[in-house]
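Structure, all two chains, one model.
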Amino acid sequence: MAPTYIVFVGTFVHLPRSTPTALAIHQGALWVSTADGRIKGTDWTIITDRDLRVLLKEKGWIPEDAPRYKSGTRVSIVRAREEQNEFFFPGFIDTHIHAPQYPNNGLFGSTTLLDWLKQYTFPMEASFGSSLPNIPSPRAFRVYNQVVSRTLANGTTFASYFATIHVSATNLLATLCQKRGQRALIGRVCMDNPDFSPDYYIDPSTEDSITLNKEVISYIQSIDPKGTMIKPVITPRFALTCTPTAMRGLADLAASYSPPLHLQTHISENTQEIHDVHCQFPDAASYADVYDAYGLLTPRTILAHGVHLSPDEQDLIHDRGAKISHCPASNSALGSGICPVRILLDKGITVGLGTDISGGYSPSILEAVRQACLVSRLLRHVGPAPEGDEGRKLVLSVEEALYLATRGGAAVVNMEDDIGGFDIGMLWDAQMIHLGRFLPACRYDNGESRVDVFGWEEWGEKIHKWVWSGDDRNVKGVWVGGKLVYGRNDVEGGNRGGWWSWVLSAGVVGVGAVIAFRRLRL
Amino acid sequence: MAPTYIVFVGTFVHLPRSTPTALAIHQGALWVSTADGRIKGTDWTIITDRDLRVLLKEKGWIPEDAPRYKSGTRVSIVRAREEQNEFFFPGFIDTHIHAPQYPNNGLFGSTTLLDWLKQYTFPMEASFGSSLPNIPSPRAFRVYNQVVSRTLANGTTFASYFATIHVSATNLLATLCQKRGQRALIGRVCMDNPDFSPDYYIDPSTEDSITLNKEVISYIQSIDPKGTMIKPVITPRFALTCTPTAMRGLADLAASYSPPLHLQTHISENTQEIHDVHCQFPDAASYADVYDAYGLLTPRTILAHGVHLSPDEQDLIHDRGAKISHCPASNSALGSGICPVRILLDKGITVGLGTDISGGYSPSILEAVRQACLVSRLLRHVGPAPEGDEGRKLVLSVEEALYLATRGGAAVVNMEDDIGGFDIGMLWDAQMIHLGRFLPACRYDNGESRVDVFGWEEWGEKIHKWVWSGDDRNVKGVWVGGKLVYGRNDVEGGNRGGWWSWVLSAGVVGVGAVIAFRRLRL
């Protein structure tokens, strides 16, 4: 019988909404309704199995596999095993990722933004076109399926995707996210300015920039009318690729829906780009002012990068309530610079993390957490030396970077009341992390985990070790809205062994059967 | 019968000694003598199995498992499978790693060098002491074994280790490296200055700094008289922890051997450290001058970091022929700064890469390659903006960073004629990298590799993908001096299955035995 609740038992780690600088670490039980996928209650006094049995009895809950004649509310139980250093953590939120660029991960040579776009990016994105109307290209299916797989396997429960200019491929990405159970914003990229966009990869006309977008919006709203899992996001690529008419039209398009649609674009990533924007829009006071002039700076706008924003631009973005997606791996890989996150946060700007595939080289937000920490430690060496202890203030702690990866990202996509933490009433978008017991990395088997927990570490230290050495091998299960959407081995808490135990059992049964058969003939 | 040669067949990638900016990619066969572990020949015309059979026939070689009555020189064949995107690459050389700090990987919070040493590092290193003379602590065995395992599993065939001040634990590290087959320099750390060294972790006296070192040297030379695998390295920690008498005594000690011993220490990592060195040695012109004054700058000296060296210091280091170990992960993690590698290289200084565990958070030199690329791309934003295209010149390409990880490291440890590349006559210190075929990362199994090769990539692009997304999962086999010292699955080219096939076989045999036994009783 289908369970009414899922009871998660073990260690829960998240960042409290009010204190981004400290981990909240709880041990006990937390339960989620299978009807709406939301957290209904917690009990941090549950330590032993006996405690859990008492809780079940008090609540009138029985395990889902209890005999049929037993009456009570059925619950499923999922454990994070203490002795295996397992814990639950909120799902990661990737606020900026280009799905079609995934095959180019790691391919950027020594280029910087503008030549990288022309040499690597535009040709790859253009290849997602299809010669058949309404039928996406095989490449789109192959690549988009892999992107969703890889991001889920890295614990990303929400992604704000840039697709390509192609309607059918963009619709396919939306379908895949819905089917695979990853929350997403899906954006058809708009680029209609022939001064920068290449002739082989450009919207047919400025008008098409708007109408093709409407097709995508209408498709997404048809398959998910309430926007529970996927929503459209209006996506002008960036100021250089878009005409003023298109930018204004796209802003109006977003505002014409109720509630207004999200918007996403790039801003102030690279110094040459900024220079070119000033040349193309000589009347605008700044790069941010270009977007503001056409109505693109709204409380539902995600601006990727913001590396070189002037104080005035930062103030403007704050005034308009627009958000920043910080993509440190990409900013380092393309030599763009270091976004001064601390300064943005101190101004009250909302910041989340993005992988920026394939300017960034990794689909992992955990890698973005690491890179956010690293570059913040280098900021003191950038530009004029900060006075006194100012350099230290620019540093993001591991805890703050994890906050950006969860609560921060949730606020960037305006879902801070629903995802990013383990507060009662929030959606269970979460991952189970498995660090494992210390096992000597013997010569022929070291593949389980890169994280070595020696046994004397406290929970806070284990979290730091996870951040600095962890990877997808440590992601044991991923849930979105209470549903398991990715899982390895016995994540559902049962007694199943690994696949090899099935092979072994099958072997034993097979041999037994052969021998029994031969005995019968005797 | 033991083979005379090992014939490696497949794709070979290395950096030519003369051109650090381009990969050399060869397809064919390369053979290594099992007697001395050196590369004896290559044939880049071998493409098909038939070509290989012709080569064997021409050379009078027969496979090692050919019937006994067959005559000929026995050879073993190891293949890197083209369809699995496998290739051979020189083993990585880690020119700076603190073995005892390994359990602290990822634990540094938001500290910088000097408080990190006191808060995390000295307490951990001190715990390697033993209450029993000549018996190393259990922790030393556990940690050192894990360090050698993890570094080998990441393709490191040579490591220059800092140990602790403890003789027996340092000797144990030497033994482990020899037994496990990792080439190494092993250094007992010397620190006798009570002004900086803590009272719980300091050499008993300045004289002991020298005599305890002699014990270690004598032990290492007793177990490896020719220094084929392991050699001692004189290791004054850094200027602040050592008295002038100790530094002079250690320099003399190194020079008293024939050939002179290697030396290793730290230099110019952090601005506060540099300031403190100036205060402690007011008569010295610079940090480098301190070491030079006591005879520590030699052609066999490895200087870790060199982040903030003045042009004069760079010239002095170049004049003395000392080498630099660039540790980018550590320099970013501790906020030390960015070492201007291009400037050092242009001056003719020899540079290699180091993990600097646990200032660095990863035992992987591949991670150091990535970080070297990343920070070089940020250099243009550090200090005064470089004019014109100067910023671009500071960038290290993927190829140059791989050169530092192999040829560069080899030159840092004065073994440029023996390791770091695939030239004829060099030692076969190498790794086999397995990228794998493209497999959709389906929901319940994505563990094999993080590198997605879609099939249209050229070899150069595959190498870039490996650098940016690869990890220990891609290291399929590691050889040192022609001997396999780490291997996963069927790396030797035979038909062995994984460990589970042994479990299965054992299960089948066991069940068969039980049933046979019961039948006999009938």
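Confidence is low (pLDDT under 50) at residues 493-505 of chain B.
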